[in-house]
Amino acid sequence: MTQMNRRTWLKTMAGTGSLLGLDAMFTAPRTDAAQIGPNDEIKVTRIESFVLTNSWVFVKISTDAGITGWGEMLKDDAKACAAGALEVGDYLIGQDPMRVVHHWQAIHRGAFYRGGPIKTAIQSGIDQALWDIKGKAFGVPVYELLGGPLRDRVKVYGTINPDTGVNAMKVLLRGSGDRQPTKYVENMRFIGSVAERFGELRARYGDDAEIGAEFHGAVQPATAALLIKTLEPHHPWFYEEVVQALNVDVMAELAKTTHIPLATGERIFTKWGFREVLEKQAARILQPDVAYAGGITELRLIAGMAEAYYAPIAPHNPNGPCSLAASLQLAGCVPNFLVLERGDREHDLLAKPLPPVVDGYRPLPTDPGIGITIDEDRLMAQVGEPREYLPRFDADDGSVIDW
Q1: Type and span of the H or E element at 137
Q2: How far apart are CA 33 and CA 340, in angstroms?
Q3: How many CB atoms lie within 10 A of CB 280?
Q4: Taking residues 198-206, what's their average pLDDT?
Q5: Which of left, alpha, beta for 120 (phi over 0: left; psi -120 to 50: alpha)?
Q6: How far apart are CA 255 and CA 221, in angstroms?
Q7: Fewer CB atoms < 10 Å away: N or C end of the chain?
Q8: Is residue 308 helix, strand or coil?
Q9: What is the pLDDT of residues 16-34, one digit of tens each?
Q10: Beta carbons of 272 and 301 less than 8 angstroms apart
Q11: Are 77 and 118 in contact (CB under 8 A)?
């Protein structure tokens, strides 16, 4: 009789449709979803990247076991990220994908010029895809590989909606003329109009609603100081990116002037970037992005650093389904998780929807890997040229202003 390993047996059974009755093959009442056996070897065979017309960037890693993993990268500089992921293939193809942290170190330290937004974004997408493969190989969600779940469901914010129970949001600050506060020193009339609009939101949704104030790094320090004090009577949930993320010392000074928590992190990458923010107490809430700051591997370490400072994390999540799914995995296994941005969004690129949001919380995914299956036909239908690169200018004098 020809000896058959677990992988060959599973492929044979799948070909005959017998996997539908797989539970009956085991004496224990459980589903064994592992796709390879403990002694099977597995190698990376291919890396592909995809840029969508909305600038989302995806990476797909294939293996000789038939298991594929998906990840997502920074949406800015989309073409550079997509090309960079393919360059990493020179190292990764032929490697064992199960050595996820080893590959993180090799990709990061193997580059002469380390870090930076594009390189770390590339690493982030690959890291998600490798964890996706490893979870599928073992037949468990990624959070099970990282110590098991600390919670059963994940608090989300996005659109306040009685149907989903979501009662938390954030709003980009705007004043009269629907203009953002971007001048070096805004006058008090304009500052007052920003506060008035925020106050109208507070009055509409009441004190039970959690409403964050998004400065988006576009506000200059002097104006930020004025807004911080003027908005305080309306009790914002947090102030996000009160100044540019590189301005850590100024952020720390502003943090001392208010009892409202400062939040930052969507433009900060790796543990080394967040270390200074924590050491200088520049923010009480960290917002690392799993598609930008280093992937699941690095965000777990950033969360551990933050826990030592009694700081929670609220992952930045403005992108697509891999970003959402990977962020949910992280939320499931770190103790100091606060809330997930846009965790209430649904994505049409999924073959099967995630568990729905109920009472403001999304249940942890239970499918293996990062917990989703990409509908590749839908994804390919949206592949194309990313959005045009467009700087922003002051309407009054034409000077360049911050995003």
Answers
A1: helix 117-138
A2: 28
A3: 14
A4: 98
A5: alpha
A6: 12
A7: N
A8: helix
A9: 333 333 333 332 233 367 8
A10: no
A11: yes
Strands (E), 215-374: 239-240, 262-264, 285-286, 340-341, 361-363
Pick 145-368's CATH classification: 3.20.20.120, 3.30.70.3270, 2.60.120.560, 1.10.3720.10. 3.20.20.120
CA-based R_g, the chain, Å:
23
Give the Cα separation of 294 and 115 in Å (integer): 9
Catalytic positions = 216, 316
d(CA 191, CA 20): 63
Question: Considering all CA atoms of the chain, what is the largest pairwise distance in Å, rounded to the nearest integer?
Answer: 86
pLDDT at 241 (0 to 100): 98
CA pair distance 196, 192, nearest whole angstrom: 6
Distance CA 370, CA 70 (A): 8
Neighbours of 28 (CB within 10 A): 7
**Rounded-to-integer distance, Cα 281 and Cα 302, Å:** 15
Q: Tell me the pLDDT of the chain averaged across its residues.
A: 92
Q: What is the mean pLDDT of residues 276-280?
A: 98
pLDDT at 398 over 60: yes
List pLDDT tens digits, range 334-366.
Answer: 999 999 999 999 999 999 999 999 999 999 999
Highest mean pLDDT among 5-9, 35-39, 336-340: 336-340
| pLDDT higher than threshold 90 for residue 14 | no
User: Is residue 60 within a helix (H) or strand (E), and if so which, with residue range?
Assistant: strand 57-63
Amino acid at 71: G
pLDDT confidence of residue 308: 98
Give me the sign of the Cα torsion angle 277, 281, 282, 285: positive
Residue with token string 């609009």:
197
- 81 beta partners: none
- Per-residue model confidence as pLDDT tens digits over 316-341: 999 999 999 999 999 999 999 999 99
Domain boundaries, the chain: 145-368
